[in-house]
Specification:
Layout (H helix, E strand, L loop, with lengths): L23 H5 L3 H9 L10 H13 L4 E6 L21 H18 L5 E6 L8 H18 L2 E7 L7 H9 L2 E9 L2 H7 L9 H15 L6 E8 L4 H8 L10 E7 L17 H11 L2 E2 L17 E4 L4 E3 L11 E5 L5 E3 L1 H11 L6 H4 L4 H4 L4 H7 L7 H4 L1 H4 L2
Parallel strand pairs: 1-2, 1-8, 2-3, 3-4, 4-5, 5-6, 6-7
Antiparallel strand pairs: 8-9, 9-10, 10-11
């Protein structure tokens, strides 16, 4: 039994009756402890309670929250890997452009960060560690500004992991790094074909060493998440298991698995035999090996990223985007930060994005869907591009909560 609103779940014995969920008279026959359990977890509610109104209120409250800023920094699209499915164009920015990027960003930060209670700074790319000195210089600037203006901040990074060293990881940790994500592609053989260096050199064995280094340095840091993303591409549970077995058993409980199928395969393959409806099998295997399952921390959002008014990607040319999964879709660009550090917002683009973010509450299919509190109509980018909802499978949006 799973409640998509409260995220509560319970496993029933095979001889259990479900009549209590369908008939209040049967519910009344239950013992007091069982009644309390079902009520406390939202499986049985008062008939006058309007959960839909509550969900809509919490969704809009989160979307228009003015206390929190989440900015993803993309100082360059340059990368030392050559992954065939990468959604970013093969563009690079020189170090001088990156210096200008952070110079302007400091002006923006000085003018705006103090207006929020908390600021999340995510490092993305390309490969952000190609410019780790510039990234660390900016984070140290924010650290000083946060102390001066009494706001909190924390940082995160999505990296291919190849350039991680003890020195730069320590620098990031000193700047309130709370999450680090590295990706492995399916099994070792597949990984060394897809996530290879530009010179063709494989990276799997190197990344296993880097992963263990990260865990050694962070295992005693509270509230730190190390996320190992597994991309599924024409693979099997057994093949992925063999890859995960390369990681020493003593480190596994500190690693949270995020598993997704590769969807952008048209750039290098016609088909992918894996899809997101299968990921529960991979999570179950990971748990058996001693890994944790990454719990999406966002609730009342249709996306962990762009479903928030105070969220944007800052691209190398200082344009502000809600989503960069399709850089050809220019309506995802909502403005630009000028050289004075002032955000020049395109309000109609913001309204357009919000319209589709909130569209689940005006769609009859969504309003009658049991997964509404998990999905909220799915990918906003797809809805903006096609004016159609992008329903996601139970295994992708809800199953993770059952793996707690």
């Amino acid at each position: 039994m799973y409640n998509s609103y409260t995220k509560a779940n319970m496993f029933l014995s095979k001889d259990s009756s479900t009549e209590a969920f369908e008939d209040i008279k049967e519910f009344e026959k239950l013992d007091d402890d069982t009644k309390k359990l079902l009520i406390d977890n939202g499986f049985v509610i008062d008939e006058n309670r309007d959960e839909l109104a509550e969900i809509k209120y919490m969704f809009e409250k989160r979307y228009y929250d003015k206390t929190f800023l989440n900015i993803v920094l993309v100082p360059s699209l340059a990368c030392n890997f050559s992954c065939p499915y990468c959604f970013e164009k093969d563009l690079s920015s020189g170090r001088e452009n990156v210096k200008h990027y952070f110079s302007v960003l400091k002006k923006y930060a000085e003018q705006n960060f103090k207006n929020f209670k908390c600021v999340q700074i995510s490092l993305f790319g390309g490969e952000p560690l190609l410019f780790v000195n510039e990234c660390l210089d900016f984070l140290k600037f924010v650290d000083s500004d946060a102390k001066k203006n009494s706001y909190k901040y924390f940082s995160s990074i999505v990296t291919n992991g190849s350039l991680l060293e003890e020195s730069n990881l320590k620098g990031l940790l000193d700047c309130h790094l709370k999450m680090l994500q590295i990706t492995i592609d399916s099994d070792k053989e597949t990984h060394d074909k897809t996530r290879r260096f530009k010179n063709g050199k494989p990276s799997f064995d190197l990344l296993i060493r880097k992963i263990e280094m990260v865990i050694q340095m962070t295992e005693n840091i509270p509230d730190f998440d190390f996320v190992l993303r597994i991309n599924l591409s024409n693979t099997t549970v057994e093949k992925v298991k063999q890859s995960l077995l390369y990681i020493d058993e003593k480190y596994r409980s500190k690693i949270k698995l995020l598993i997704r199928s590769v969807y952008n395969t048209h750039k290098y393959k016609d088909k992918n035999s894996n899809d997101n409806s299968q990921i529960d099998k991979y999570f179950a295997m990971g748990r058996e090996l001693g890994f944790s399952v990454f719990q999406e921390s966002f609730q009342y959002q249709s996306c962990e990223a762009c479903a928030d008014e105070k969220f944007f990607y800052l691209m190398p040319d200082l344009t502000m985007w809600k989503c960069i999964n399709d850089l050809n879709y220019k309506d995802a660009c909502i403005g630009k930060i000028n050289n004075d550090g002032v955000a020049e917002i395109l309000p109609l683009k913001n309204v357009f994005w919000a319209k589709h973010a909130l569209s689940a509450f005006s769609d009859d299919k969504c309003l009658n869907c049991k997964l509404l509190p998990d999905c909220y109509g799915g990918c906003i980018l797809q809805k903006c591009k096609t004016c159609k909802k992008a329903c996601r499978p139970f295994e992708m949006v809800s199953m993770l909560h059952i793996f707690r």
